[in-house]
Amino acid sequence: MKSQNFIFKNRFNTFYFRQRTPKDILSLLPSAKKEVKISLKTKDKSIALVLARQHKVAFDSLFQGLRIDHMHGRMYPTFNELNEDEQNILMREQYATEAINDQMFTQQLFFLLERKDRIKGAFTNFEALQGYSLTDIDLSSVIKINHFIAIVDLLSGENLSDPTTIIDKIK
Predict the structure, then answer these.
(1) Do 140 and 79 have their domain in common?
(2) Do residues 121 and 156 touch, judged by C-beta distance below 8 A?
(3) What is the pLDDT of residues 159-170, one digit of tens each?
(4) Domain identity same for 11 and 71
(5) Which of 1, 7, 45, 148 is the most exposed, having the fewest neighbouring CB atoms within 10 Å of its CB?
(6) Strand (E) positions, 1-142?
């Protein structure tokens, strides 16, 4: 499952919601913007996450409505046209998805902490990694963390004969 983050900070630490318009929607509406960027008008991350989820659900509903309209020639209601119960259901579904993604990310970071001695050893013992640290590794998604954990586990294995092929896989 791919973890996606839809909030970003500007240089003044204000959070923004940002989402790319899907390619199939761009083909339906060539004049549509390639990316939507909306200020959440807050510097508090927890508030920004709630607001971003609301925007995400609204845009997903809009995009799905456009797809259905195109396929069947009928109109699907936008998020604002749904009754309050339907809006709440969509919001809970999005919140559950985000909570699962957050939990997976937190769990993988914990696995990294469990391997801190192995990671230090890798950065110390292998000449190609000397001068680097954990901050130089891209750990922005669960998949990238899993990839790095697997590499660290391989590098700390006793049967390692040639570490260069493994070290080359670190980006």
Answers:
(1) no
(2) yes
(3) 666 667 677 766
(4) yes
(5) 1
(6) 7-9, 15-20, 35-39
Residue 109 domain-assigned (yes or no): no
- Residue 13 is encoded by which pair of tokens? 């630490």
| Within-domain flag for 107 | no
Q: If you average pLDDT over residues 128-157, what whole number do you get?
A: 79
Q: Under a CB-based contact definition with an 8 Å cutoff, are residues 108 and 150 in contact? A: no
Q: Torsions phi, psi of 35, nearest 5?
A: -145, 140
Q: How many domains does the chain have?
A: 2
Amino acid at 164: T
The model carries a pTM of: 0.43
Give yes or no for a contact between 28 and 65, defined as CB atoms under 8 angstroms apart: no
Q: pLDDT averaged over the chain?
A: 79
Residue 3 pLDDT: 47
* Domain span holding position 123: 115-171
Q: Residue 75 above 80 pLDDT?
A: no
In terms of Cβ atoms closer than 10 Å to its own Cβ (0-12, 13-18, 19+), residue 99 is exposed
77-97 tens-digit pLDDT: 667 777 888 888 888 887 777
